Amino acid sequence: MTTYKIQALPAAVLDAVRATGRDASGNAVERMVAGGGEPLRCCLRDATGGEELMLFGYEPPLPPSPYREVGAVFAHAEPCPGPDPAAATYPAGWRGRKQVLRAYDERGWIHPATRVHDGSDPEAAIARVLAEPGVVRVHSRNVAYGCYMFTVTPVRDS
Question: What is the DSSP code string of 51-66?
């Protein structure tokens, strides 16, 4: 089975957005109080009611290509510890959610290995997509809105 790494939003991106109050497109960051359930891309869990959040446009990592895009994401308004380093697997609270696994090649173009998984065995679904020839990264995305959740990259033996 293919081994891989799940990556939340980079700390440098979060630091810049918090410091400037501007997103990838230069738009003002929206600050709000969580109602609960908002998917946080900083720590890969759902928000609980009352947490201070920010909503902003994020450009997921891709080489320059026609498929590069900016989409809205939620994160904590103040720095958080990030994902649990002991849980280097699929976010536990997001199991059971349908997700699109959008595969990309080295050019940053969408790869035909892209598929929807039902959330019952996300590790196997991710491993199958990453095992396809030419896939170098995968973005997990919400089915209904297409929002970016996190990036998955294969771990290559050195």
Answer: -EEEEEEE--S--SST
